[in-house]
Automatic annotation (TrEMBL):
Its cofactor is a divalent metal cation; Mg(2+). Its EC number is 4.1.1.112, 4.1.3.17. GO terms for biological process: regulation of RNA metabolic process. It is an enzyme of class 4 (lyase). This is 4-hydroxy-4-methyl-2-oxoglutarate aldolase.
Length: 164
């Protein structure tokens, strides 16, 4: 059973960072945690995001920043289904998702800013590819690869430590 984010704040406030983003939950799992792996996306190019889904360790949480690209959904039920099938604990997207009805059926945590009906695409020539495994900053916190994220309906926290 996962420790709640309010309990973690009560016990370890000096050791955790609290995301100030008002995340929307779309996955079937409302509480999740795990080590962070990161992806930053440019120019609506989702190739690195798909690579992260295909290679992230089971139990990990993929944190993706795509907010600086044109509005589109970075993930729908197909990509999320692949991630859930691989045992990914959750995906946090600083951007948008789609296919909500399908996402809700998956046993995985999914947090995003909202929804958008248009899908992202693989790169075309001349577009920048994204980057993986770098520190991202959004929601007034740093998302560091290898640190731990804890998410539930009360909020989202990041810590260097794993709490049981």
């Amino acid at each position: 059973m996962q420790v709640s984010t309010p309990d973690l704040c009560d016990q370890y406030l000096d050791e955790v960072s609290i995301s100030e983003t008002r995340w929307q939950s779309y996955g079937g799992r409302k509480a999740f945690s795990g080590p962070i792996t990161t992806v930053k996306i440019f120019d609506n190019n989702n190739r690195k995001f798909m690579e992260a889904i295909e290679t992230a360790e089971p139990g990990s949480v993929i944190v993706m920043d795509g907010i600086f690209s044109k509005p589109c959904a970075w993930m729908g039920d197909r990509k999320a289904g692949i991630a859930a099938g691989r045992g990914i604990a959750g995906i946090i997207i600083n951007g948008y998702v789609r296919d909500i009805e399908g996402l809700e059926k998956l046993d995985m945590g999914i947090l995003a800013l909202g929804t958008h009906p248009k899908a992202s695409r693989f790169a075309t020539e001349g577009k920048r590819e994204g980057e993986r495994d770098l520190t991202l900053t959004f929601g007034q916190i740093d998302w560091v690869p290898g640190h731990y994220v804890y998410a539930d309906q009360s909020g989202v926290l990041v810590s260097e430590k794993k709490y049981n």
